[in-house]
Amino acid sequence: MKLILHGSCVCLFMLVGSCRQPTSAVPIYTQDINHYWEAYDKIIATDDSLAKREYLQTLFLDRATPGLDKLREVRNYTAEEYLANIEAYPKFWASIRENTLRAPELADRIEAGVRDLKRLYPCPKPASIYFGVGAFRTGGTAVDSFVLIGSESTLADSNVVTTEFPKDVRPAREAYFATNPIDNAYTLFVHEFVHTQQEPIPDNLPGRCLYEGVAEFVSCTATGAEPYASVLFGQAHADSVWSVFETEMFSETNTSKWLWSNAPNVFGQRDLGYYVGYAISQRHYERAADKKVAVRELIEMDYTDSDAVDAIIDGSGFLSEPIAQLRANYTADRPIVTSLVRDKNTFTVQFSEPMDIRYRNFNYGPGGESTSIWIDSVVGFQEDKLTFTFITEDLPPGVLREVYLGPGFRDVSGISLQPYLIQVE
């Protein structure tokens, strides 16, 4: 493999034999980091708020690579957020600066990671890696053929200063930085690179866990790296994790308990969905006679095909019953709307089960925003927790208006409502 440097872009050229779709290069772009520090130095040297905004825009945002533009798009990073973080965390930025400027040095490790991956998965599609600077909402993510790295997180180590962070996020960041993520940046790249090979992520929790778990299992198997802390925790508490997952995996409101969040859960461990998907992938791989075929099946499956996902999950043997049966049991147990009474703009809903009065959820109907019923006020639940009343805007006669009572409504045991469509004319 030949390593070629072109300014702030590093290209890794790979020979792939007889692959049908050879990856001719993996470009690595790091110039957004340099641009950020140029803007940063100007911003902290002035007290003029308009000048600060101008420096950020002209020296950083206007010069963005396509990767930084995509990172800002998928994580909704705003100029105001960048400026607020610069003002709030000067000690942090001073402590991480040297690490971020080492991004070009990671080329050798990334080269090794790609080479390791190709031993398991010989014909990956092309992808590019972009080291950007964000606002702490991702260490890394993949979109289309882009691997997007949040350098302010991924290039940190145990020496960065965390004392300026708010108390509600400081423990999680301290714990993450203590793992010296910069030392494992190449493994993160391989994980995200696998995501660029997968079909779009599905909209259900079992499929999402498998999607993430496949990327983690393949990247760790390829590189020999230790998996995420959540995977290690899951391996040490497998029986209890699987027991709870069975009860929560079909609820639309439970994703944050299992993936991409510090939301509270019974284990006090975030991202256990990675373990779930990792364990399923590992079992599929171990049982396969041809390991490369198994890896290709895991990576290239259609994650939006529930039958395909169910087959992989059932094949692992971790669930107490086939997943289709568990899904049917869950559906049968979901609360439903048993009656709806309308008095002009006042709607009173009756549910089949006592509901958790802390939660409610209204969604657009099939016609989207243009046909939506707009809620004017919520009266709320009666003492029986079965009856819920809300008041809408004026509804013009003869004009279709609609709204879903969504799965954010849940019963006292946490099971989500079967969505209910209200339509009036």
From TrEMBL:
PROSITE patterns noted in UniProt: PROKAR_LIPOPROTEIN
Name listed for the protein in its UniProt record: DUF2268 domain-containing protein
